[in-house]
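Q: What would this chain look like folded?
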Amino acid sequence: MTIFEQLDYYGHEQLIFGRDEKTGMKCIISIHNTALGPATGGTRFWNYATEEDALYDVLRLSRGMSLKNAAAGLALGGGKAVIIGDPEKLKSEEFFQAYGRIVDSLGGKYYTAEDVNINEDDIAKIKSATPYVTGTKEISGNPSPFTAKGVYKGMKAGASVKFGTDSLNGLVVAVQGLGSVGYRLCEMLHAEGAVLKVFDINQNAVDKAVAKLGAQAVGAKEILMTGCDIFAPCALGAVLDVNNAKLLQCKMICGAANNVLADAETCDVLEFMDVLYLPDYIVNAGGVINCGEEITQKTYDAAVVDAKVDRIYDTVLEIVKLAKEKDISTYLAADEYAYGIIRAAAKR
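A: My prediction, written as structure tokens:
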């Protein structure tokens, strides 16, 4: 498909390409929908194999942010950005200021935040060039704890449906990815008595989980097929497709990664296998709820954010209920739920 055909496919509003010759900064900002408010979504810094891969990622992620923000009840639209290159080699103050100027040129139509390979210090550098940044140290800081809590609450809601109780005590949870969100999720699961199986490309993170949380380390391939009650993908997206989904040995999927499933057909496979899939953008909305509080409220209140994140539990139950009522997958039910909110806003 051409670029415009790709924009047409999911109804994206705008695509911005930016570069800075001096620092080597190359970025793509995708604005999917602004019916509810300014587009909001983090910036991902990744050494993509091709520019086509980067474009595919940013288009999928920005659409996901529209749905996530809508389903979370936020007055925010969906956007996302990717920076192309090796973060280990390219990061500098000048580099992020150059990127910040691209964000600033949109005049508040897009607010950015942390994502893969972007931390609080990087955000501070971006903010020196634009005010359209959230998750700053001065206000709320890293939103990862709220993301992890939302996944945890969603997991408990899903457990109440799948296992008849929302207690996670004694359940085996396989966690793929031990970054700031994945590891915090493991801490909460461990505190409740869940049994952990973990994988991460960072061996230090794995060793830490084994030593402090009693987790069992498994390999990259084994994490998908290890026996468990719940599979929690917390790394990059597109983890499951119609082929490898058949290898799963779990009863439920609930994780922090964006775009866990390659497509709706993958969820059909999971339905056939009687595996309950909790849509990623429903359960991982805690971070953007936190960022939304920064953007839309005059005074930031962490307690208010905490209460809103707790509601993810109820939203999960609504999605599961809608799926059963309409005899559709939870993947499609989540989209229907979120798009209904967006369409209603567009008519106002």
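The chain has a mean pLDDT of 94.
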